[in-house]
Amino acid sequence: MVAEESSDIVMEQQSKTFEDSSIESAKENIKDDGNEKAEEGVTQKGEPLHFKMVWNKTNYEVSSLGTLNSVGHMRKQIEELTGIPCKMQKIMYKGLVKDDDATLQDVKINNNAKVMVVGSTIKDIEKVKTPTPQELKQEQAAEAAATKEPLCQQKLHKKVIDKGKPDDAPPGIKGVKEKLPPFPLSGMTNKSGGKVRLTFKLELDQLWLGTKERTEKLPMTSIRNVVSEPIEGHEEYHILAIQLGPTEASRYWIYWFPAQYVDAVKNTILGKWQAF
What is the mean pLDDT of residues 148-164? Predict the structure, then answer.
């Protein structure tokens, strides 16, 4: 009888120990779930910071981050404020900020700092004018018919080049690389012979493509490629193409573009950013 009671006591103690263990385990799981949920958002780490973030001429006050938050955390905060996807943001603070793992303390962002952000929202990109199916078909036919001969000898471009250099074309310099000038580049022509003006709005991350009829404000992140080739006999000028869609048929051709600015245009549009 005593042995049975002793056995019951042992079993009861084991059961209680198991229950206590289960409760502690459940508490740990709840704690872990809480941490995971906290990680989903951006929690303040380190000393609190209060600084300005500027995008598209709009100032945003940021006070939810701390010195030990990472640049990646800041990107999430920027996406919440502006709608710019993290991967499409360019953060400028004493130069281009690239390391997402670095803390705000590492990149020396302090109270009252001013952080510049450039980038385009998905809605902005969707607004970009794309060629009509008929235009695409015509371009594709022209590209298919073209051989590997120089661009300036192909029928599509030769008819424009043969009209000669516009009187107001900007001076071209062969064999020299220069930064983009602080003013719009004008005097070039498009495939219709109309005048073209290029304005680089770095603070908006946009290229303004202007003609007599209208000005297209193109997010730089929507431009797929930039290609160019010197004009034979006039190597100080290039034929330049800005690709606005997924295929070569969506290229916007610009003629008599000054050779010295070609690399600067490619670097600016395709991602080799310079501080401004």
Answer: 85
